[in-house]
Design goal:
- There is one protein chain.
- With about 350 residues, the chain is mainly beta.
- It contains 2 helices and 26 strands.
- It has helices at about 1-25, 280-285; strands at about 40-45, 55-60, 65, 75-80, 85-90, 100-105, 110-115, 120-125, 130-135, 140-145, 150-155, 160-165, 170-175, 190-195, 200-205, 210-215, 220-225, 240, 245-250, 255-260, 265-270, 285-295, 300-305, 315-320, 320-325, 330-335.
- The strands form 7 sheets. Strands 1-26-25-24 form a 4-stranded antiparallel beta sheet, with no helix packed on it. Strands 2-3-4-5 form a 4-stranded antiparallel beta sheet, with no helix packed on it.
- A hairpin with a 4-residue loop joins strand 2 and strand 3.
- The longest helix is centred in the first third of the chain and has 25 residues, at about 1-25.
- The chain is globular and about 55 Å long.
Length: about 350
């Protein structure tokens, strides 16, 4: 009798846990989205023929893409004309780059960012030749402010992230207190750093919580903002590798803000969360972009970018009223109507 009761109790307990788990997975995130119609309109797409591209830059005429595998070439794409041109980036013969190095394009000039080697190589825009080298602090990501100054996300002596401004000649300023630690100061503060075009403002959006920060280009805080969801604390688990004494993520993290970009007026955030007024089908078959005012960080609206040819959104970039989206080996251009 006792064994029978234990057996039945175990079955009931397992059943209750399964029900609770299922309800937790379907529980609302306690926020809703405002999704007015006709705020985004598809314009044209182009087949890039290869996958694995990332955005290196954007201007009024071209999107600049670099392949993650073949990283010494820039693909210049003009969607309006339906053409693209792949050009080789030339560099000194003795230039050795690390595996984490990446390329960007600023004013049609290539820039090689190599944080592990603490180097930035700037090109000659006319010949796509990496010609000028700046020695900087080690970094994981960075943005160009001018030909003579940068802002980096860098890991300090405490193994925590800091934002650092560095000018040519080595002068530095650390944005103390800009990044707010919750758990370890490294993974919990990881995010995306971007600059507002034609402005002295930058944004930093956290990957794992509903927060972003706006500062000026001298790393003075202007304001802190929140995305419309309620995930205010990073849901990550951090472990230490004993052999190297390094920190690592112990399990896949819950990404709140997947990708971020900005134009002169608005901050655009690709959210990883479903709102209470969205269906599972809509959330699975499209990417949702939440829009916030650059001036004060207040929420304005949201819109959807549907999956294209069965491919989900890899990344996006905004230039003025144009939004460019990468879907596997497709590049799609949209028109923003707000």
């Amino acid at each position: 009798m006792y064994l029978t009761l234990c057996f039945l109790g175990s079955i009931i307990s397992i059943g209750l846990l399964a029900i609770i788990s299922d309800l937790a997975g379907k529980s609302p995130n306690h926020f809703i989205r405002q999704t007015p119609g006709h705020v985004v309109e598809g314009v044209k797409f182009i087949d890039l023929k290869k996958r694995g591209y990332y955005f290196a830059g954007l201007d009024s005429s071209y999107a600049y893409l670099v392949n993650q595998i073949i990283n010494n070439k820039i693909l210049t794409v003009n969607i309006s004309q339906g053409i693209f041109l792949e050009e080789i980036i030339n560099a000194p013969k003795d230039l050795m780059i690390s595996s984490s190095a990446y390329l960007s394009v600023e004013d049609r000039c290539p820039i090689l960012w190599d944080g592990m080697k603490s180097e930035i190589w700037r090109g000659d825009g006319n010949h796509l030749f990496l010609k000028y080298k700046d020695k900087v602090s080690s970094f994981t990501k960075g943005i160009l402010l001018s030909p003579a100054s940068y802002i980096f996300l860098s890991i300090n002596k405490k193994n925590e992230n800091d934002l650092i401004k560095q000018e040519r000649g080595g002068r530095q300023k650390t944005g103390k207190g800009l990044l707010q630690k919750q758990i370890d100061g490294l993974f919990c503060t990881d995010g995306q750093l971007i600059k507002v075009p034609n402005s002295n403002r930058i944004f930093y959006t956290y990957f794992y919580r509903n927060q972003f920060m706006c500062a000026d280009t001298n790393l003075n805080l202007l304001y802190r903002g929140k995305t419309i969801d309620t995930n205010s604390y990073a849901k990550i688990k951090v472990a230490k590798i004993r052999s190297t004494n390094q920190l690592t993520l112990a399990s896949p993290p819950k990404i709140i803000n997947k990708h971020t970009d900005v134009n002169e007026k608005y901050l655009f955030i690709h959210s990883g969360l479903k709102a209470d007024n969205e269906t599972d089908k809509v959330h699975e078959e499209s990417a949702v972009i939440d829009v916030y005012n650059v001036k004060d960080g207040k929420y304005k609206l949201s819109f959807y970018l549907p999956n294209f040819d069965g491919k989900s959104l890899n990344d996006f970039k905004v230039y003025g009223q144009s939004l460019y989206a990468l879907y596997d080996h497709y590049l799609y251009k949209y028109q923003l109507n707000f």
